[in-house]
Design goal:
- By secondary structure, this protein is an alpha/beta fold.
- The chain is built from 13 helices and 9 strands.
- A 4-stranded mixed β-sheet has the order 4-5-7-6, with helices on one face.
- Helix 8 (about 190-210) packs across helix 9 and helix 10 runs antiparallel to helix 11 (about 305-325).
């Protein structure tokens, strides 16, 4: 896709009063650089240790992982924990339903990711794939009881490094994603449809950089994987993430050439990732689960209040981004829809705000989050 048809010189130079503030909120209260990956990983590992039975192999594996990660931190190598697969296993280790045998499997997989064990040690884990993209630079597929390199899922997108894009591959995420979010897929990597989707992601990140260089730097320090899903058909959900359960990754059903909408979805999921990590590192800032629900003015569904609190910030960021698009001399696919989306957000965001503040979840943390967004929205609304 020709990016010049979307980003103009006027867009690049146009000032925007609170763009840096939106990016700064999500960065200023978390730790700098790679440190928060280590803090969250160690926190989850300590939770898993607390659940493990005394004097077990599991405790020994977890203790080894903790020692290794502390060594990495002292050597300035916390970036090695910037891997969604590490958080998938850590989150599973803390699950209430997991017994020690299942936890042993997840801990063994962590040892493989951290170069503390060989992949052959988990050949009996029941997994069809080992996604070792960030730790080993490859994906392994199990065939006849042995692992072999499966290179096709990894897209070549050097402009996005260290972020990587995973092409849709049949069964690649069957170990934790339901079929309606990652349906069967037989298309080949070389298909132009999927290659155009990768190019659309690259263009969307360029637009985010033009919109806010600080936000884009934060995005690329937080998001390590964008996994293209097989086409999701008529589902309204075009992108999703998995909280801390697959931290640092976004799943997206990207439509080739739809750069602005793709940028909106990436911004949306990035904000979710930032807030879940912020709330883990700074629990006093978290909007707690207390059973309260809020009706979303965007979907008309009843949604847990913490999720809608995040939605208020996300739609505030979306409002800001769409104002930047619409008020600039942008042209090309998606601009007309951006105008319609802007009107929809402007109309419904105040309704969401009022619903949050009158809900039983209106804690000081929620009011503080709403207050920050109000400052930003005052420029746009």
């Amino acid at each position: 896709m020709c990016l010049s048809c979307v980003v103009t010189s006027e867009m690049r130079s146009k000032p925007h009063p609170h763009r840096t503030d939106l990016a700064g909120l999500l960065r200023s209260r978390t730790l700098e650089g790679d440190e928060d990956w280590g803090v969250i990983a160690r926190g989850l590992c300590e939770q898993a240790l607390a659940r493990a039975s005394p004097s077990t192999v599991l405790r020994s594996m977890l203790a080894l992982l903790l020692r290794t990660w502390l060594d990495w931190e002292h050597q300035g190598e916390s970036y090695r924990l910037a891997d969604p697969e590490v958080f998938l296993r850590l989150y599973a280790l803390t699950a209430d339903a997991a017994d020690d045998q299942l936890r042993n499997v997840h801990a063994s997989l962590l040892l493989v990711h951290c170069h503390l064990a060989d992949a052959d040690t988990v050949a009996g884990s029941g997994l069809a794939f080992l996604r070792l993209v960030h730790s080993h630079g490859e994906i392994l597929r199990l065939s006849n009881g042995a692992w072999s390199v499966c290179a096709s899922p990894i897209a070549v997108a050097p402009n996005l490094a260290p972020l990587c894009v995973l092409m849709p591959t049949n069964g690649l995420f069957d170990d934790f994603l339901p079929v309606h979010l990652y349906p069967p897929y037989e298309q080949k990597q070389a298909d132009s449809f999927d290659l155009d989707r990768v190019a659309t992601i690259e263009s969307a990140i360029v637009i985010l950089r033009e919109y806010s260089s600080e936000l884009c730097v934060n995005f690329l320090s937080r998001i390590r994987t964008i996994a293209l899903t097989p086409p999701l058909g008529e589902q309204p959900r075009r992108s999703f993430s998995c909280r801390l359960g697959y931290y640092g990754a976004i799943f997206a059903d990207v439509i080739p050439g739809d750069v602005i909408d793709t940028a909106v979805h990436l911004l949306h999921e990035y904000c979710h990732q930032q807030l879940w990590s912020l709330w883990f590192v700074r629990p006093s800032l978290a909007v707690e689960e207390n059973g309260a629900v809020v009706r979303s003015p965007f979907t008309e569904r009843l949604v847990p209040a913490p999720v809608m609190a995040q939605a208020y910030l996300i739609y505030s960021a979306t409002l800001d981004f769409l104002h930047w698009i619409v008020s600039s001399n942008a042209s090309g696919a998606g601009v007309d829809r951006a105008v319609d989306d802007l009107k929809r957000v402007e109309r419904r965001l105040p309704v969401l705000r009022d619903s949050l503040l009158v809900s039983s979840a209106a804690s000081s943390a929620l009011r503080e989050l709403v207050g920050f967004c109000d400052q930003a929205n005052g420029v746009c609304l």
